[in-house]
Design goal:
alpha/beta; Aminopeptidase; six-stranded mixed β-sheet; 6 strands
């Protein structure tokens, strides 16, 4: 069964693109810690769903889940990681920022828009730090094992509730809805094209990577059967 879903994994990449490689001061481990560790493996569902979009570019370089004009330190083209570590040895020029947006940011969002017509639901997939990082609104606080969000409107509430039930049945843990995440830029900006939800799994080792992938696939399959899609 091919699930009529569009899976987005915007923070699974680890690559520092050539445009900034010489001035990026992050270690490989710092790049991993700023992104969604495990996401590439957990959400490797390309053969299971209608449409699948990801990137190999690190979140520390271009954050695809930010608005294009978000120029905060933790914005679309960052100056610091979520752990407040400086990323570059020198400030990026406006021209270089524009190059990064043109080559890596806009194509991702164009893909999401182009694929929206052929599916029932978009699922923006992430992993989250077990404890909120310094830049987060829940800094220093323990996070739930699973958070599902719809920005209070990017998909019908009945769909959100049912998907939460499917995740709870599959993982055998409670699912938090719209807390600590209410839904990021991707689901908010593309909701006019397609219903969207954001899925966050804790990076805590309550299950192996392989088990998390299996549970996600089981829950999404059950959700699709529930709505006869």
């Amino acid at each position: 069964m091919t699930l009529p879903l569009l899976i987005s994994t915007p923070h699974a990449g680890l690559k520092v693109p050539p445009e900034v490689k010489e001035i990026c001061t992050l270690t490989e481990q710092q790049i991993v810690e700023d992104g969604d560790e495990g996401a590439a493996e957990i959400y490797s569902l390309r053969d299971e769903v209608t449409s699948f979009v990801t990137t190999d570019v690190a979140r520390a370089i271009v954050d695809l889940n930010r608005a294009e004009d978000d120029r905060r330190a933790d914005g679309v083209v960052k100056t610091h990681t979520i752990w407040e570590v400086p990323i570059y040895s020198e400030p990026l020029s406006d021209e270089l920022v524009e190059t990064l947006l043109t080559k890596y940011y806009r194509p991702y969002h164009n893909q999401l828009s182009a694929l929206a017509k052929n599916v029932k639901l978009g699922v923006d997939c992430h992993t989250m730090a077990q404890v909120g990082p310094p830049v987060a609104s829940d800094a220093g606080k323990e996070r739930p094992l699973i958070c599902l969000s719809n920005a209070e409107g990017t998909c019908p509430e009945s769909w959100l509730t049912r998907l939460a039930e499917c995740l709870e049945n599959s993982f055998r843990v409670s699912v938090s809805i719209n807390s600590p995440f209410k839904g990021g830029y991707i689901i908010r900006s593309h909701a006019h094209e397609l219903p969207w939800v954001q899925l966050e799994l804790s990076r805590a080792t309550f299950l192996s990577i392989e088990q998390k992938r299996s549970c996600v696939l089981k829950a999404l399959t059950e959700w699709c059967k529930s709505f006869d899609v």
